[in-house]
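Annotated sample (chain length 156).
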Amino acid sequence: MTETHETKQARGKLLEIASAAARFGLAAVWIVAGWTKIGAHMEVTQNIIAYEIFTHEWSNILAQWIGPLELAGGLFLLAGIKLRESGWVSIVVLVLFIIGMYSAWSRGLVIDCGCFGPQPSDEGTNLIETILRDFVLIAATLFMIYVPYKKFAIYP
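Output written by the structure step:
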């Protein structure tokens, strides 16, 4: 059974729409995550310290840089600059976040993950849900890497 020209066009259009949703959705996630951390240095530092992985000094340094770097990554995806490379960097960052959250969860820590800036809840973040969300973001990123949406891209 052979595919018709219309079927191939429809499949191509569907892949294009899905890739655009992945690219712009991931850009939005990184931009919001980074933006909420900028100007909340003390709270972000406290969130990082709560993981009990880094020293206070390293937590302070990470808190200073994580928001601007997330924001820059989101802007790279939004503008379409080095889409594949930006995608791989996103995956590395998400894997590091997953490792940190799994470490906190496995040690029974009740923390605010700090994913989208400081949260007012005393209950902490549901780390398993957050880890699963990050795996979904990794899947979307992999899709974007292998089927990049290059329209409106400055330097794909």
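Annotation: The chain has a mean pLDDT of 93.
Annotation: The radius of gyration is 18 Å.
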